[in-house]
Q: What sequence folds into this?
């Protein structure tokens, strides 16, 4: 059951990040919209979880950096910086 939940989280992450990129690329949302950054942040968490479980350290590193970038961008959006 635990493995299945982790796999679902990983698939959510993939869909969220690719979905955010697609929505931005087709000008449906902007990178300055909070939903874009939320999708990237939560998506990276899902991919981090499955990558930790499978011990894929390159993907853990990449998505950890992705999460930090999304978190900083989201903070800037919400704080109007």
A:
């Amino acid at each position: 059951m635990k493995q299945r939940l982790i796999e679902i989280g990983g698939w959510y992450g993939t869909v969220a990040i690719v979905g955010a990129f697609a929505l931005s690329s087709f000008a449906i949302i902007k990178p300055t919209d909070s939903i874009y950054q939320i999708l990237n942040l939560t998506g990276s968490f899902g991919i981090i979880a499955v990558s930790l479980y499978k011990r894929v350290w390159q993907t853990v590193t990449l998505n950890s950096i992705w999460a930090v970038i999304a978190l900083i961008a989201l903070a800037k959006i919400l704080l109007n910086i």
Q: What stands out?
A: Residues 2-25 form the longest helix (24 residues). The CA atoms of residues 51 and 59 lie 6 Å apart.
